[in-house]
Amino acid sequence: MLPLVVSFVSLFAASASAQASAASTAACQAILQALGSTKVQSSGAMYDNTADTYWSFFNTVDLPTCIVYPSSASDVQVAMTQIFDAGSDYAVRAGAHSPMIGWNSINDGVLISFEEMTAVSYSSTTDTITLQPGTTAGGVEEAVESFGVSAIWGRANVIGSGLLLGGGISFEGPLYGWASDRIKEMDVVLVTGQLVTASATNEYADLFLALKGGANRFGIVTRYELYAAHTGTKDDKLWYGGLVVYPASSTTALLTAISHYVRDATDPNAGGIMLVSASDTTSATAHACYFFYKGTTLPTSIFGELLSVPSTSQTFSTYSFYDITFLITGDDGPNGQQFGATAFVGDESGAAFLNGYNNLVNFTQTFSEQLIGSFFTVSPIPLSQWAASLSGENAIGNPGVNYGAIDFNLVFPDNESTRPAALNDAFELLLSQNPPSPGLPLYMNECHESQEVLASYPNYALLQAAYAKYDPTGFNVAHTKGPKGL
Ligand SMILES: Cc1cc2nc3c(=O)[nH]c(=O)nc-3n(C[C@H](O)[C@H](O)[C@H](O)COP(=O)(O)OP(=O)(O)OC[C@H]3O[C@@H](n4cnc5c(N)ncnc54)[C@H](O)[C@@H]3O)c2cc1C
Ligand SMILES: *[C@@H]1O[C@H](CO)[C@@H](O)[C@H](O)[C@H]1NC(C)=O
Ligand SMILES: *[C@@H]1O[C@H](CO)[C@@H](O)[C@H](O)[C@H]1NC(C)=O
């Protein structure tokens, strides 16, 4: 019986993929005809370089039918129109740093890659930064720093503009807000190929809100205009802080102090990230935390407990915004990466943080052969981060309480191209063991593809309405991998 079952299954798989290929082949031929062979490639050095270059090694497995390299919004309109007409699968990539499988890569489909659209400019008249989607945090900072301004982004210079569509958490977020909430205007190509400009105040305000946290579901953004943050030049050392390394013996005290910081740190000048290692449970250099304050010290009233937890080293100095942008590069070798999100309010006992961490340690020990690293990463989200918005509400929706966004981050061995099924099942168990505290949203940019991120948003109903309006046939959900729930 067994061989028969196998051959039936593989026959079915072959015909499903042949159908996908026919649609994507038709789309690629039509786009090639319209845009030419420089902008549409199905093989060769440029194609290979794109398909092989992803932060997470797992996404290098996918081979697109063709890769489209647009140089303008109208090129994206051409591509999207043909994809829509052919009924082809597709994916969009900007900085290629999201590890969710298939959200920025595609097998048997059209990949739109923004690597040829990297322009950045600053206008002192409007006090805004205009950028194309192919640029990175570091690219924007290099381009505008001399004007004494910055774009608010994330905490690693290599991250691309896809961050803006998921929210965007930075060290300076408590003061300047979510990265997405500094968007003034976006040019967006809808699924049908129509180009619109969306802002908080025009007829596309519902689309604008949905894009600010709705990830890749609501259209393809071809231009962002951001409100500039007046952060100074690279010589203006307006921040103080740096790296604190903690030994494994401090784990319980550190997690408890993190819970208190998440609850109590309301000064918008304070920011930080805590990477608590769940794979290194013995060494003197297990955990790494970065703390910053816009000022000349790390105030004891805010950071006192964290700094009094026994540490291995504390490396502090003054920093400009530019220095902080380039402090963490975050580019690794050929490692598969995996994120999983939860969110906790901080309380006195720290129980949620301790339980989550201990569950991750147990998971990591179960799969010690399959992993080279695992981290319980905490990003504090104080209420000031919502209050700072310059462009109204975002897709997420303010839950009305300080909390910590948690990322269960796994790192796989070099060149390992697949995730074992048993590990996936256990990871979903780990996530179900650690649901968000009631009412808290999951963070899109740090989620696992199995998670119901959109349904966790206080503003979920607004997103559902916007999706039904701007993609009434559900084309994006049917043909692109991304967050579930629409
Ligand atoms: C080392 C590292 C550090 C990180 N640090 C932070 C951090 O400090 N703060 C934080 O908030 N996040 C952080 N992240 C998460 C990061 O924000 C997300 O991975 C982000 O989505 C990456 O954007 P990208 O453009 O590089 O990636 P991509 O994978 O290219 O894009 C991300 C998603 O957005 C979609 N997309 C991209 N551009 C467009 C577009 N123009 N139109 C429509 N859809 C589009 C893609 O299809 C994909 O689904 C970090 C990630 C890494 C790897
Ligand atoms: C991973 O692959 C690269 C390129 O093929 C190779 O140079 C490297 O040695 C490999 N690393 C391991 C640990 O196998
Ligand atoms: C430890 O992890 C294993 C593998 O996922 C799981 O079966 C077990 O229930 C976990 N134990 C605890 C206490 O979480």
UniProtKB/TrEMBL annotation:
One of its GO terms (molecular function) is FAD binding. Pfam families: FAD_binding_4. InterPro entries: FAD-bd_PCMH, FAD-bd_PCMH-like_sf, FAD-bd_PCMH_sub2, FAD-linked_Oxidoreductase, Oxid_FAD_bind_N. Residues 1-18 form the signal peptide. Residues 60-231 form the FAD-binding PCMH-type domain. Keywords: FAD, Flavoprotein, Oxidoreductase, Signal. PANTHER family: BINDING OXIDOREDUCTASE, PUTATIVE (AFU_ORTHOLOGUE AFUA_1G17690)-RELATED, FAD-BINDING PCMH-TYPE DOMAIN-CONTAINING PROTEIN. Belongs to the oxygen-dependent FAD-linked oxidoreductase family. This is FAD-binding domain-containing protein. It comes from Roridomyces roridus.
